[in-house]
Design brief:
Blueprint lengths: L2 H116 L1
């Protein structure tokens, strides 16, 4: 057999091996596509129930947020009232001290006048 004959034999063997690889790749691709189709069908059956559950969870979360917002509003109202009450109590507590300061200032003024008149 000549060199050309060996080359033809080698090319035929390489072509047969390449054809086998292509056939194997096609079989694997078909299997992968079937698996993808099964997963897609499974998602189609499960997705509506998952979406419904997510919708219920979001609604429950929103309801809790509204309840929490109401509680925070009440806390703000109570805080404002406590602050106003504390301010009022402080002002009422300072009235006697302010009155005593005014009275003592007047007494000092009268006392200083009396000292000047005598002296």
């Amino acid at each position: 057999m000549a060199l050309a004959d060996w080359l033809i034999v080698i090319l035929i063997v390489v072509a047969i091996v390449a054809l086998g690889v292509v056939i194997y790749a096609l079989v694997e691709a078909v299997g992968t596509m079937r698996a993808v189709r099964r997963v897609a069908e499974d998602l189609e059956t499960r997705m509506p129930s998952l979406i419904d559950k997510a919708d219920v969870a979001v609604d429950a979360f929103n309801a809790e947020m509204l309840r929490l917002d109401g509680i925070i509003d009440q806390v703000e109202d109570v805080t404002i009232r406590v602050s106003r009450t504390a301010t009022l109590v402080q002002e009422v507590a300072n009235v006697p001290a302010a009155a005593a300061n005014v009275a003592s200032e007047r007494l000092r003024t009268v006392w200083n006048r009396m000292k000047r008149e005598r002296g």
